[in-house]
């Protein structure tokens, strides 16, 4: 389920940890702890299921841009971040460590692209005992 407020996902060490300020798309709210996508125009928004955006990293702040594209910037971080696991046939298991997973929403990743309806999020770094997934978001 897409975020409606900030969350605090855990980060796994300093693997490729890198922070960057990026321009936000118009009319979007991005919540701290959520996956951030870059759209085709080069502006950033909360991740959602689609085939055209590119997952970039995790938001470090909560911001709403009600101005033009690029009117506000938001800090995002790359590295290994803990996300929610999908359900049913898209559940990610320990055997999937190292495979590419796909964006369901700004806090959930899935094992499949759902027939190319979803874009890649990153690679599975680990699956925790509670079923959540550590995902490696690369710059």
Summarize the structure.
The protein has no helices and eleven strands.
Please specify the SSE layout and strand pairing.
Layout: E1 18-23, E2 28-30, E3 35-38, E4 44-46, E5 54-59, E6 63-65, E7 73-85, E8 100-105, E9 108-110, E10 120-127, E11 133-137
Parallel strand pairs: 7-9
Antiparallel strand pairs: 1-7, 2-6, 3-4, 3-5, 5-7, 7-11, 8-9, 8-10, 10-11
What does the largest sheet look like? 5 strands, mixed, barrel
- The geometry reads as globular
Mean pLDDT: 94
Strand content: 35-45%
Q: Order of SSEs, N→C?
A: EEEEEEEEEEE
The low-pLDDT segments are none
SS field, number of helical segments: 0
Helix content: under 10%
Structural class: mainly beta
> Mind telling me the C-alpha Rg?
14 Å
Query: Can you count the beta strands?
Result: 11
Task: List the strand order in the largest sheet.
Answer: 7-9-8-10-11
The number of domains is 2
- The CA-CA distance between the termini, in Å, is 25 Å
């Amino acid at each position: 389920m897409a975020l409606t407020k900030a969350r605090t996902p855990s980060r796994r060490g300093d693997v490729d940890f890198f922070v960057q300020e990026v321009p936000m798309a118009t009319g979007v709210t991005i919540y701290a702890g959520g996956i951030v996508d870059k759209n085709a125009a080069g502006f950033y928004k909360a991740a959602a299921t689609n085939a055209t955006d590119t997952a970039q990293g995790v938001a470090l702040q909560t911001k709403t841009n009600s101005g033009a594209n690029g009117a506000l910037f938001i800090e995002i971080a790359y590295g290994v971040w803990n996300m929610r696991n999908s359900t049913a046939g898209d559940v990610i298991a320990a055997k999937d460590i190292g495979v590419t997973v796909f964006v369901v929403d700004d806090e959930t990743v899935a094992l499949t692209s759902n027939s190319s309806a979803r874009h890649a999020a990153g690679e599975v770094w680990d699956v925790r005992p509670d079923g959540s997934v550590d995902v490696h978001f690369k710059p």
